[in-house]
Amino acid sequence: MNVLGISCYYHDSAAALVDDSSIKFAIQEERLSRLKHDSRLPVLAIGRALEFARLRINELDAVAFYEDPRKKLGRLWDQVLDGWPNTRRLFFEDIPYFYRHKYPIAEQLRKHLGFKGRVEFCDHHTSHAASAFYTSPFERAVVLTVDGVGEYDTVAVHVGEGNRLRKVRSIVFPHSLGLLYSVFTDYLGFEVNEGEYKVMGLAPYGKPVYRDKILGPILQLRDDGSFTLEPSFFDFSDKSRHFSESLVRHLGMPPRTSKAPMSQEYMDLAASMQSVLETALISMVGRLATEFQTKDFCFAGGVALNCTANAELIRALGIRSHIHPAAGDAGGALGAAFNAIFQHDASAATRRYDFSAYLGIEYPQAVTKATFTLNKIPFAGSEQPARDIARLLADGKVVAIVNGRDEWGPRALGARSILADPRAANMKDHLNAKIKFREEFRPFAPVVKQEHYAEYFETLDMEATPFMLYTHRAKRPSDIAAAVHVDGTSRVQTVSREQNQYLYDILDEFHKLTGVPVLLNTSFNLRGEPIVSSPSDALRTFENSGIDCLAIGNLLVHKQESAPVAALAGSEKAC
Question: Are residues 289 and 332 in the same domain?
Fold first, then answer.
């Protein structure tokens, strides 16, 4: 079977192509459209997936959608009726949009893409669960999915056994840990569905002094590990903000505007919300571990991208954890495709999909050369790019790299990355101010040669952490000062030669020069933009930042040798 999974019409639309034995291709639409969190029908991603597999759209056995629109529409109507008349906007704006776009998704595929085959629907949380379980090493595991809201569910518990997922319980809207965290994201002046990781990064600068204002009055934990929210503090039908004036009075501080200074009280509020989230998850997972007599867990949903909470679950409960790197809505495209495959495959043999994070587009060197030539950009070939890049990094230069296929998910994992020397603490400030143009409190992640992982970081009893999904306490913080956050932790990525030879070789050469097998690794994008995909994307971002060198494969461009380019010509579209 060849099944195309898609997610769209909320945020982070994506397409993933899967057959019976392998993941062929997966990419988020934003990488190609250049629109951050693009939610539209992922026509560019679908086109690239079919092109990669050399398939016509009607050669697909099925297209699988990551949600059930009928169930979601039912929840929207319930929300309108329960909250009327305060839900007028939901009635006059959101439901008509839903009817035009997400509800007729099968008709849209037929109208816009000419697809004549079978369209299948998978519940939102089942899509999340499938993306994690079928890429895990476990034959049996509890699969916990936590996010804002799917159709009705905000939390779902599945038991995965062999090739089957069985849903055993859920928590439904409006009681939601994901929405609670997003409310505090908004309260702190950050954009919802974008700034949650900023709250996580800000939390170590504060103390959880407001914890008792949240845990108990706002979020009530039950003995069985479930929870409820006090509804008087929220208005989930208000698009401008999801909290009521009751919450403002209760917290005793005004909501922060996006331009306002970041005072200590807001740092303390971030620390308090992060602490409450960790407490709620530990309570839930602890109960599940006892009930199902297992230490093997898979996690998915947007909350599973909270690296600090992921690590605390392991420290507190000693569980074994698997998280798919595209744990948010984009990953639902892959999960929906998996679900369709296993629904139609009666094979008794337990099967798991070997997972690589590099599932997107690889651009031929000829495309890169043509892009540089068309834009009159001087470039040079290198016989030993790893050695040359490592020397630049050791000299304090910042180097952006593009190599191989795009990463799948929101983290840059060495295919579309910006690299820097972690040894000097001021490199963090330089990257935030001159390269990424973002808040000074934001941390940067280290990438380390896998064989030196335990030497530099707490391992959480894992042999490797290739997807940058956990925070680890640093053992030698003074050696890698720019890669260690204010609380002494780092969001670590390990890399082996088999996983990513290009990145590993750069690390190896840097290690030979400096004695340190660690580099800073941050996503190759500017603030407010998606991670780059193509050579022209890379060149545009390079020209608009303080990056010193751009390396695409073995082709290098140095900033002082290139002239600013107002409008870049891209050659990759013709290929």
Answer: no
